[in-house]
Structures are given as structure tokens and as C-alpha cells.
Amino acid sequence: MELHIAKDPAQLSENVAAWISNYILEVLQSQERFTFVLSGGSTPKQLYSLLAKAPYNMMIPWEKIHFFWGDERDVPFEDERNNARMAYLELLDKVGVNPENIHVMRTDIAPDASAAEYEKILKSYFGKEETTFDLVLLGMGDDGHTLSLFPGTPVVHEQKAWVKSFFLEAQDMYRITLTAPVVNRAACVLFLTTGVNKAITLKNVIEGTFDAEKFPSQLIRPEEGELHWFVDEAAAGAMEI
């Protein structure tokens, strides 16, 4: 695991944008496509906005990138809480992405049907491969959740399915999510975390005893791939570094 610390969220986004663009170019030297899992929430919004501007909008061969999502709220695409909507507005609508290479988690069908359909798509990409995604971008909640793997929920313990849907009582909504096993087969996983309100949780996740029931972000440990935590000084404030 590599820890990267930036002064503040703005500098962090700049650092991550540069890192991701270099990584994409490096990977595409030896293969024809790049598979990228996007994260929802507020933290990556600034990152997406940067990637959609110079120099990254010109550096990155967007037509070779295949986009996926880590999780989704079961709300219509038009709803501002929809993760895919945010990514389209901030990034995908502004760069030259092939629409056929964008794979949203559908919310216009039943959640269980959406999860089954998404797993089928993933199997068509990676079913015969040892490695799944080239890059998975993740966030971490104040409670230590990542994706829709929330503390104390059964999906935390999923070992077989690559995609699951479930009803999250605390939010009174269904969620659709990738599971830890499919993410842990990725070539690279990048956590993006900011804010003093996440400092104690971050310390527990990285330096504390393993307790995935309490801190599901600890589940993300790539089997063969890289793991990077990009954090700002406020989020890193409680760590022993």
C-alpha cells in the first residue's frame, strides 16, 4: 500500500489527475483498452472536472477507455444523487468517450435485475481473465464504508457474486454495488479521501486491527494489484506518519 498526502483537496485533485493520466498512458502502451471504475459522491467531483480540462482532456485517449461504476443509488438518472449523472455532467459529456464504452448501473429496472445485468457485462469483459479492472477509484465514508459496503450489512461478507443489490434501511433505498472480490482482482485501486471528519476512521482503516464488519474499507486489498491512498493533510491528521 502506498500513501500519498497533499496539502488540501485542491492540491490532492491536481495530484490524482496527473497520476491517473500518466497511469492510463503507461497501461495503454501494452494493451488496446483501459477499464476504469468511477466513484460517486462529492470527493471525486473536482477530480472529474480537472480531467475534463487541459491538459488532461487532450493527453488521455478517451476513446480507448471503458467506464464502469463502483456503486449506484436506486434513483432515476435525472436525480442529483445518481452517481452516473454526476460523472456525465463533470466528465463524460465533455470528453470524447465512445458511448458504447460507458456502462452505467441501470436504475430503470428492478435493483436485482440491474445487478444481474451488470455482472453479466463484467463477465463478458473479465470472465476469462485473472485481472479485472485496470483502475478502480474509490472513496471512503466517515463510517469507513466504501462502494455500498456499509458497516454491519450482509454484502460485506459476499464472496461469490461480483455485483449485489440490497435495501439499505438507514437510507430507505436500494443500492447496487460491486463486491470486494471483484475489486480485489483489479490491477490498481485508488482511494481518494479528504477532510478532518475522516481522520480517525482513516487511521483505524490503515493502521488499526482488521475489522471489516466495522470498517468495510479494510476489505479492499488487491490480491496482485496496487493499492494507493491519496489523502489530504486533514484526513491524515490522526495517523502515525
Describe the structure.
The chain is α/β, with parallel strands linked by helices and 241 residues long. The chain has helices at 9-27, 45-51, 56-59, 83-90, 111-126, 180-183, 199-207, and strands spanning 2-6, 34-38, 65-69, 71-73, 135-139, 163-168, 173-178, 188-193, 226-232. A six-stranded parallel beta sheet has the order 1-9-8-5-2-3. A three-stranded antiparallel beta sheet has the order 4-7-6. Helix 1 packs across helix 2 (45-51). The two termini are 14 Å apart. The mean pLDDT is 97.
Q: N-to-C terminal Cα separation, in Å?
A: 14 Å
Query: What is the overall pLDDT average?
Result: 97
Distinct helical segment count: 7
Strand content: 15-25%
SSE class: alpha/beta
Strand order of the largest sheet: 1-9-8-5-2-3
- Shape descriptor reads globular
Note poorly predicted spans: none
Order of helices and strands: EHEHHEEHHEEEHEHE
Rg (CA only) = 17 Å
Helical residue percent?
Answer: 25-40%
Q: How many beta strands in the DSSP annotation?
A: 9
Could you describe the largest sheet, including whether it forms a barrel? 6 strands, parallel
EC number: 3.1.1.31
Pfam families: Glucosamine_iso
Catalytic activity: 6-phospho-D-glucono-1,5-lactone + H2O = 6-phospho-D-gluconate + H(+)
Protein name: 6-phosphogluconolactonase
